[in-house]
Amino acid sequence: MGVNLQKGQRIDLTKGNVRLNKLVVGLGWDVNKYDGGEQFDLDAAAFMLGDNGRVIKDSDFVFYNNPADEAQALEHMGDNLTGQGEGDDEQIIVDLSRIPPVYQKIAFT
């Protein structure tokens, strides 16, 4: 099941599906033909957040240069520098069953 979100939108993915434990979060982009022709790179990242809404330790920030957290609950699948091609340009795989209970939210950027 695919879900497309808009900037700032929030969603509870387990509502109506309490057994959901694996997901793929993807970011896709294409160069805007009106951007002046310059190349740019977007990056997918995830922050595992504690009760206070903050990252507890540096390894809780998952991105191309830190591709997995300590519990191996989140895995960044690599950095796409151009956005070329169809579909997702970058993906983060999430295994909800491996997230330690100290984390209350995951924020994706």
The dominant shape is globular
If strands are numbered along the chain, what order do they take across the biggest sheet?
1-5-4
Summarize the helix and strand pattern as letters: EEEEEE
Q: Assign the structural class, choosing from mainly alpha, mainly beta, alpha/beta, alpha+beta, or little secondary structure.
A: mainly beta
Averaged pLDDT: 83
Q: Approximately how much helix is present in the residues?
A: under 10%
**Total number of helical segments?**
0
N- to C-terminal distance: 21 Å
Oligomer state equals: single chain
Q: How much strand? A: 15-25%
Q: How would you sum up the major sheet?
A: 3 strands, antiparallel
Task: Describe the protein's architecture and organization.
The chain has strands at 22-27, 46-49, 61-62, 74-76, 90-95, 105-108. By secondary structure, it is an all-beta fold. The strands form 2 sheets. The protein has a 3-stranded antiparallel beta sheet, with no helix packed on it. The mean pLDDT is 83.
